[in-house]
Design goal:
single chain, 461 residues, Rossmann fold, eight-stranded mixed sheet, 19 helices, 8 strands, 56% helix, disordered N terminus, binds NADP nicotinamide-adenine-dinucleotide phosphate, transmembrane, metal-binding, endosome
Length: 461
């Protein structure tokens, strides 16, 4: 008899200011944290617990009753209990009939069980309306109020009214509900908190691998080689010189790797003569993490700027300038200004400054708050056209830096070219292939393919 009125009262919560009682099963960390927050927001809270004794940890305005008694007091029951204990709900099925049960549980592993916890709950209490919510919010964040990074609450369920009731509570707590659809989405929602920077894994592992490779490469060329052949100790290069070599190299390679999958995709589409066949998995995954690759590249470019700014205050650099000046004084000879060198060095710096400026612009436009405010065409213009311009500027910056040393045999040590020469391989390939793809004989069919044209249509009309 109690069930129907409590549901109706809850549905009316939108229209009156009076908050409906919320029941929480479980007085553990999450149950208590959510209880506190709900009471703060004006909801009467009743706990359903195995022990009805209150403790100082339980919010003082909350009632603690047995599960069956507590269930009678509210239309919404939040199950703040681990999945492995859900069996205790089976004998309560009568009391829970018609109630909205909110499953907030998480697992320890991705796809730990064949069905989601919410679907499992629905099997145990078939007469209840199950809604999945709150699992992406931590008890600590609820209690400390540090919810800035995780205001989004994914909500899913098969009953629209039940879902709406839960979303109203989410909103009242100052959080943002995101309707993810039916209960089928629960497994995905449960996996979400277990994912550790999924899109960042490849860019970070790749940059770690490249950093290690270039570190040892530069160590061999710039520290070990001079030590063996010239008996010079340049081990202090490890602190600034080598990092300042690795950072621009990685920034350039990673930026080129942002644009390489697009070029590969174009070649594949031209070759297949259709866009309706899936790309290989590795290419799909690569395309999905281009933003993260670009942001890691920007981080390396920013480090390069900082390392470059400290060059004038390095004691090695000051010593070199002073020695050069003293040697000119001792020889009573002044070197005239080499305007070619001055041009090269100024152009190199100018290209670097402009390249970094556009790099930062790309980074800013990839932020959701900015990208949400531009339309698709504007976004593509910045990320594609300005992106390629950035790649051209940064590649030119490196080319001008290397300049005349490229073909000089003295720049090779143990047959190893300078590290920045290696960094030019990927960007040059990307730019050359992109340049070839711009030719109308390739660009036109590619545009047609991307608009749906097929060379050998699978389904003829
Ligand atoms: P917890 O501190 O271990 O509390 C679980 C509560 O479940 C206990 O306090 C107990 O409450 C009840 N319980 C334990 N064994 C039981 C049994 N055999 N039968 C019936 N009730 C039992 O866990 P929690 O951290 O609060 O997490 C609760 C749920 O919220 C979990 O499913 C978790 O995945 C989810 N969650 C937690 C967080 C978080 O930050 N902690 C974040 C998101 C989601 P009584 O003693 O009152 O009966």
């Amino acid at each position: 008899m109690n069930k129907i009125p409590s549901n109706i009262m809850a549905l009316a919560s939108n229209t009156s200011n009076k908050r409906e009682t919320v029941c929480i099963f479980g007085t553990g960390d999450f149950g208590r944290a959510l209880g506190h927050k709900l009471i703060q927001c004006g909801y009467p809270v009743v706990f359903g617990s195995r022990s009805t004794q209150t403790s100082s940890l339980i919010p003082k305005d909350a009632e603690v009753l047995s599960h069956a008694e507590a269930a009678q007091k509210a239309a919404i029951i939040i199950i703040a209990i681990q999945r492995q204990h859900y069996n205790f709900l089976a004998p309560l099925a009568e009391n829970l009939h018609g109630k909205v049960l909110v499953d907030i549980s998480n697992n320890l592993k991705i796809n730990q069980y064949p069905e989601s916890n919410a679907e499992y709950l629905a099997q145990i209490v078939p007469g209840a309306k199950i809604v999945k919510a709150f699992n992406t919010v931590s008890a600590w964040a609820l209690q400390s109020g540090t919810l800035d990074a995780s205001r989004q609450v994914f909500v899913c369920g098969n009953d629209m009214e039940a879902k709406q009731m839960v979303m109203d509570i989410v909103r009242a707590l100052g959080l943002t509900p995101l309707d993810q659809g039916s209960l089928l989405a629960a497994q995905e929602i449960e996996n979400y908190p277990l994912k550790l920077f999924p899109m960042w894994k490849f860019p970070i592992l790749l940059s770690l691998g490249l950093t290690t490779f270039f570190f040892f490469y530069c160590l061999i060329r710039d520290v070990i080689y001079p030590y063996i052949y010239e008996n010079k100790d340049f081990s202090f290069f490890i602190a600034i010189s080598i990092p300042n070599r690795i950072c621009p190299i990685l920034a350039l390679i990673l930026l080129a790797l942002v644009y390489l999958p697009g070029v590969l995709a174009a070649i594949i589409q031209l070759y297949r003569g259709t866009k309706y066949r899936r790309f290989p998995d590795w290419l799909d995954k690569w395309m999905l993490c281009r933003k993260q690759l670009g942001l890691v590249a920007l981080a390396f470019a920013s480090l390069h700027v900082v390392y470059t700014l400290v060059i004038p205050i390095r004691s090695f650099v000051r010593w070199r300038i002073i020695s050069y000046t003293v040697s000119q004084a001792l020889n009573n000879k002044t070197e005239p200004l080499d305007t070619t060198n001055a041009w090269l060095s100024d152009s190199y710096l100018a290209l670097g400054i402009l390249g970094f400026f556009f790099f930062v612009l790309l980074g800013i436009t990839s932020l959701p708050s900015v990208s949400n405010n531009v339309n698709w065409r504007e976004f593509r213009f910045v990320q594609s056209k300005l992106g390629y311009l950035t790649l051209v500027l940064c590649t030119a910056h490196t080319l001008v830096y290397g300049g005349k040393w490229f073909l000089s045999p003295s720049s090779y040590r143990w047959y190893l070219p300078n590290a920045y020469m290696l960094s030019l391989i990927v960007p040059c390939i990307v730019l050359v292939v992109k340049f070839v793809l711009i030719f109308p004989c390739l660009d036109k069919p590619l545009m047609q393919i991307r608009q749906g044209w097929e060379r050998n249509p699978q389904y003829s009309s």
